[in-house]
Amino acid sequence: MPSDQAIEKSQLLERHGATVERVAPCSIVDKNNFVNVARRRAAEYGADDKSGTRRGYFVNQFENPLNSDAHYRSTGPEIFQQTNGHIHAFVHGSGTGGTIAGVTHYLKQQVPGIMSFLADPQGSGLANKVNHGVMFAATEREGTRRRQQVDTLVEGVGLNRLTRNFANLLKPMQGDSKGKCMLDGAVSVSDRDAVRMSRWLMANDGLFIGSSGAINCVTALHVAHRLGPGHTIVTILADSGQRHLTKFWNDQAMVSLGHDVNAPATLDIFEQQ
């Protein structure tokens, strides 16, 4: 995994017996990108086994269509059943693209008129790709990047490339004569709003969520304002704050980056965009 991820993520895996290799963040075209290193490690594992038994397996979760298919077969139906089909919009971020692709595909087949929106962190080019057809992030223009890849403190979502899972969302659904892609829009969420939403949810709802869950909630709020009262909007709180204690939930670290870690008095603050 990239070495700039919160240390407790690798520590948790190590407590379960895994060997975790943390590598410097770099582009996917670099042989030392964490995805490419994982591919090599899978090929190397058990390579000297004389029986020829394959022991290493590369999940390839960014490009493997079984990722989105799992959400098409499980998460999508679960949401449909728990809402009794009364749902107007689905909101989610994209890391591998598996969740938003699988759920969106399923729900669009089941619920006429349902909308699906991407929650995207600052520094990611996916929101601009969805809204304007061009992969671009404002941080590239400003020339103030602080880190490799996506320039954000949000972990787990946001990219400046298209994965196979996410790319499928940009294609029209089978039978759609209008040729529209399956996503109805995207919201680019600032680090500031991600921090503020996480603190608001903790103070008001007792929800201790991580950074990707926070941007999902910010985007859901924007969609709620867009659709108006009486609509059901579903998102997923995909990560716990327990995996972000040393970074996103480290108040001292957030203050050093210029973020206010006090819970906002009202959600109205998120309308000031």
What's the helix count? 11
Terminus-to-terminus distance: 34 Å
Strands of the widest sheet, in order across it, are: 3-2-1-4
Pattern of helices and strands: HHHHEHEHHHEHHEH
What spatial form do the alpha-carbon principal axes imply? globular
Structural class: alpha/beta
Average pLDDT value?
91
Low-pLDDT segments, ≥5 res: none
Compute the number of strand runs.
4
Strand content: 5-15%
Q: Which quaternary structure do these chains form?
A: single chain
Largest sheet: 4 strands, parallel
Radius of gyration: 19 Å
Residue share in helices? 25-40%
Tell me what you see in this structure.
- By secondary structure, the chain is α/β, with parallel strands linked by helices.
- It contains eleven helices and four strands; from the N terminus they run ααααβαβαααβααβα.
- Strands 3-2-1-4 form a four-stranded parallel beta sheet, sandwiched between helices.
- α3 crosses α5 and α4 crosses α5.
- The mean pLDDT is 91.
Summary tags:
4 strands, alpha/beta, 11 helices, 273 residues, four-stranded parallel beta sheet
